[in-house]
């Protein structure tokens, strides 16, 4: 019986690289540093190539290799496997997308690619960086936003960063132009059963990323891969990180990301470009410009209070404690405590806040979650604990205190590391918001100030009945 020939190692490796996009990337770019998010992106691109995903959005921070993965290597790998098909690429300018086309062409003509796929399949008489054909009838064609794409329909259409900068992203005129170009050019260039891949950092809540989702065909929903530079609390089954971990720590450790956050002047820009979670510029309920900042507290504060929002589950939610001061109609957020802790540590944190801010003789504690047990325990140790029973929705409670903001009577410190995070949660909060601990503690405090009938006189301990529950 004839023996079955043992396949050569080179043939086995070539077969693996034809099937696996990430193995292809590592072969054609030997210095490429592979992180888990690159493997995730590759798995999604392979699903696109198999026809399993027809609408894919990838949101990722700057300099995290999304363009290398999608615009530069994927078309070369796809055409190597499907030489009779067509890929269309686009970006915010002809120059940028032509650079991508040049990379695709060079990969396909390189020895590493030919080693995998057997030969150079680019036609000798059609090798322009922005338009080349294969000897099997396929092609690659690209153009910037506003340009025409005169080729056969694209089986794969890749849109990579359609905004040049923040000015374009915030321009109503440019966005309207972008929408029309997408409708009349991009969507008309689809081959039957075409797939569209859209990769970008986020810019605004109503950027092109969101416009595509808002206008999607229900039969072709967008699959979104959101890659935050620093893992937040959103439940994403494809993201293996713990909250607070960096996306690509080998290249961008958490210290570097925190530095960039500070350099960008706070969370508004960082949340969009690095976290892929843009905040509203003006605010759904509370307007950003209505929030005042202070450097030092005024003299002779009229009243101090502490306000606490507790949690059922310390593994997913935060305990939020705040100290507020009032001077006439003006309310000042003085201190914030925010941490994922259990019952015992929560009680200790409330006691510590009383010790550190003895002026705050009233402590508001929401009775829901584990508030009831906390209140019962703390009343044996400190005075001034007042249970709060929320009877309205979180949104209604924030709307109720919005006049304080609109009249410019709410102040936050300029120089605290938590100030920007507090502002972003307050400004971005709406009916569908997931995070609300800061909002809850804030509305609790402001509502109580508003309900006071004692003018500017500080509240005495004896004025606080121990069992007097207050509804907000």
Verbal overview:
The chain has two domains: 9-227, 3-Layer(aba) Sandwich (Rossmann fold), CATH 3.40.50; 288-471, Nucleotidyltransferase, domain 5, CATH 3.30.420. With 472 residues, the chain is α/β, with parallel strands linked by helices. Helix 3 runs parallel beside helix 4 (66-81). The model is unreliable at 453-467 (pLDDT under 50). The longest helix has 16 residues, at 66-81. The strands form two sheets. Strands 3-4-5-2-6-7-1-8 form an eight-stranded mixed β-sheet, with helices on one face. The protein contains 16 helices and 16 strands.
- How many H/I helices? 16
Structural class: alpha/beta
Q: Any idea of the CATH topology of the largest domain?
A: Rossmann fold
CATH class of the largest domain: Alpha Beta
Strand order of the largest sheet: 3-4-5-2-6-7-1-8
End-to-end CA span? 87 Å
**Shape annotation:** elongated
Low-confidence stretches are 453-467
Helix content: 25-40%
Instruction: State the total count of DSSP E strands.
Output: 16
Give the tally of structural domains. 2
CATH architecture of the largest domain: 3-Layer(aba) Sandwich
Averaged pLDDT: 89
Look at the structure and name the CATH superfamily of the largest domain: P-loop containing nucleotide triphosphate hydrolases
Sketch the major β-sheet: 8 strands, mixed
As a whole number of angstroms, the C-alpha radius of gyration is: 28 Å
Please report which band the strand proportion falls in: under 5%, 5-15%, 15-25%, 25-35%, 35-45% or over 45%.
Answer: 15-25%
């Amino acid at each position: 019986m004839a023996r079955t020939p043992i396949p050569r190692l080179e043939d086995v490796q070539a077969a693996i690289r034809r099937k696996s996009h990430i193995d292809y990337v590592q072969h054609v770019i030997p210095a490429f540093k592979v992180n888990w998010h690159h493997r995730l992106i590759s798995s999604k691109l392979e699903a696109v190539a198999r026809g399993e995903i027809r609408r894919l959005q990838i949101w990722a921070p700057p300099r995290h290799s999304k363009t290398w993965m999608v615009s530069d290597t994927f078309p070369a790998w796809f055409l190597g496997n499907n030489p009779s098909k067509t890929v269309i690429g686009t970006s915010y300018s002809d120059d940028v997308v032509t650079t991508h086309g040049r990379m695709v062409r060079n990969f396909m003509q390189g020895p590493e690619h030919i080693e995998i796929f057997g030969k150079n399949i680019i036609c000798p008489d059609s090798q322009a960086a922005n338009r080349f054909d294969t000897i099997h009838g396929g092609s690659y064609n690209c153009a910037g936003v506003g340009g025409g794409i005169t080729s056969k329909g694209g089986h794969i259409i890749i849109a990579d960063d359609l905004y040049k900068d923040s000015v374009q992203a915030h321009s109503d005129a440019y966005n309207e132009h972008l929408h029309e170009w997408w409708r009349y050019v991009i969507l008309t260039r689809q081959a039957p059963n075409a797939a569209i891949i859209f990769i970008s950092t986020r810019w605004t809540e109503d950027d092109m990323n969101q416009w595509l989702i808002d206008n999607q065909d229900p039969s072709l929903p967008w699959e979104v891969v959101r890659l935050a530079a620093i893992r937040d609390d959103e439940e994403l089954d494809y993201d293996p990180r713990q909250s607070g971990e960096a996306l690509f720590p080998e290249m961008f450790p958490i210290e570097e990301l925190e530095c960039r956050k500070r350099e960008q002047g706070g969370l508004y820009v960082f949340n969009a470009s690095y976290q892929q979670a843009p905040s509203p510029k003006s605010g759904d309920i509370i307007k950003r410009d209505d929030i005042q900042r202070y450097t030092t507290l005024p003299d002779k504060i009229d009243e101090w209070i502490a306000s606490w929002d507790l949690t059922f589950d310390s593994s997913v939610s935060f305990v939020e404690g705040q100290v507020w001061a009032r001077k006439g109609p003006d309310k000042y957020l003085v201190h914030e405590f925010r941490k994922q802790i259990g019952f015992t540590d929560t009680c200790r944190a409330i006691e510590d806040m009383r010790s550190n801010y003895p002026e705050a003789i009233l402590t508001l504690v929401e009775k829901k979650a584990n508030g009831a047990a906390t209140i019962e325990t703390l009343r044996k140790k400190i005075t001034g604990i007042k249970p709060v029973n929320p009877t309205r929705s979180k949104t209604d409670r924030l709307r109720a205190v919005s006049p304080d903001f609109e009249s410019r009577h709410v102040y936050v410190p300029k120089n605290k590391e938590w100030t920007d995070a507090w502002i972003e949660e307050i400004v971005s909060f709406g009916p569908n918001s997931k995070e609300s601990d800061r909002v809850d503690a804030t509305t609790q405090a402001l509502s109580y100030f508003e309900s006071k009938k004692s003018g500017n006189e500080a509240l005495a301990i004896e004025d606080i009945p121990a069992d007097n529950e207050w509804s907000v």
